[in-house]
UniProtKB/TrEMBL annotation:
Region annotated Disordered, chain positions: 206-230
Domain VTT: 47-161
One Pfam family from the record: VTT_dom
UniProt entry keywords in alphabetical sequence: Membrane, Transmembrane, Transmembrane helix
Species classification: Bacteria, Pseudomonadati, Acidobacteriota, Terriglobia, Terriglobales
Protein name (Swiss-Prot/TrEMBL): Membrane-associated protein
Domain of life, per lineage: Bacteria
Organism: Silvibacterium dinghuense
InterPro entries (alphabetical): DedA_domain, VTT_dom
Length: 230
C-alpha cells in the first residue's frame, strides 16, 4: 500500500510570531491604555487569544499584557495630571465627559478598575485621563488597573489555551488561503494606527500644550469627536 501523502498544513500564525508574541502583546496593551487610540477595540484580547491558542505560554502572555497596560495607563494618568481638563477635552468627546466625570469623582480608582475589566463598548481612555485630571492618587490607581487587567487578560489567556485551538483549527480549515491575509491586515491596521496616534499626540503637544489642571475646562474644538480607545 502506498504511503499516505501528507497534506500541507497552513498555520494561521508564523512560528517566529508565536515565540515573540509576548513583545507584541506588551506593545499593543501599552498603546491601548495610552493617549494614543487604537481603532480596533479589544486588540490586546484578540492577540492573547490567538497566541494562547497557538500554544503560547498563557502566563507570559498575561504578564506581558498586564505590564504593558500598566505602563500605558501610567502614561495616560501622568499626562492628564499635568495637562488637566484641557487635555481631557482634546481626547474625550463631550458626551462621555458628562457621564464619566461624576463617576470618577465619586468612586475614584474603583471606577477605573471596573472600566479596565469590562469589555467594549465600555470606553477605557476617558476613565484613565479623568483619573489623572481629577486627582486620583497614583498608588490606588495603578493597583486598580493592575488587578482588573490580571482578571481580564488572565481570562483571555485561559480561554485561548482551553478553547481557542478548536476555533483556530476551524478557521485554518475553512479560510485556507485567506487566514494569513486576514492576520497581516489586522497587524497592518494596528501598526498604521499606532504611527498615526504618535504623530497626532506629538502634533497636539506642539500646538501649545493643554490648559492647566486648575483652570476652567477649555471648550473642545467644534465638531470634533475623537474615537475612544478600548
Amino acid at each position: 500500500m502506498p504511503a499516505a501523502q501528507k497534506t500541507p498544513h497552513h498555520h494561521l500564525m508564523p512560528g517566529w510570531l508565536i515565540h515573540l508574541g509576548a513583545i507584541g502583546v506588551f506593545v499593543v496593551a501599552a498603546l491601548d491604555a495610552s493617549p494614543i487610540p487604537l481603532p480596533l477595540p479589544g486588540s490586546t484580547d484578540v492577540l492573547i487569544l490567538l497566541l494562547a491558542a497557538h500554544r503560547g505560554n498563557p502566563w507570559i502572555l498575561t504578564l506581558a499584557a498586564v505590564t504593558g497596560s500598566l505602563c500605558g495607563a501610567y502614561t495616560s494618568w501622568g499626562a492628564a495630571k499635568k495637562g488637566g481638563m484641557g487635555m481631557v477635552q482634546r481626547y474625550v468627546p463631550e458626551r462621555w465627559l458628562g457621564k464619566l466625570e461624576p463617576q470618577i469623582k465619586r468612586h475614584g480608582a474603583l471606577a477605573v478598575g471596573l472600566a479596565c475589566v469590562l469589555p467594549p463598548p465600555i470606553p477605557l481612555m476617558p476613565f484613565l485621563l479623568l483619573a489623572g485630571a481629577l486627582g486620583v492618587k497614583r498608588r490606588p490607581y495603578l493597583i486598580a488597573v493592575g488587578t482588573a487587567r490580571i482578571v481580564r487578560y488572565g481570562a483571555m489567556a485561559w480561554l485561548g489555551a482551553t478553547y481557542g485551538r478548536r476555533v483556530v483549527h476551524a478557521w485554518e480549515q475553512y479560510l485556507s488561503g485567506w487566514s494569513e491575509v486576514i492576520l497581516w491586515t489586522f497587524f497592518g491596521v494596528l501598526i498604521a494606527a499606532a504611527l498615526f496616534g504618535v504623530w497626532k499626540y506629538r502634533r497636539d503637544k506642539q500646538r501649545g500644550g493643554y490648559a492647566p489642571s486648575d483652570s476652567p475646562s477649555a471648550p473642545a474644538p467644534a465638531g470634533r469627536e475623537e474615537a475612544v480607545s478600548r
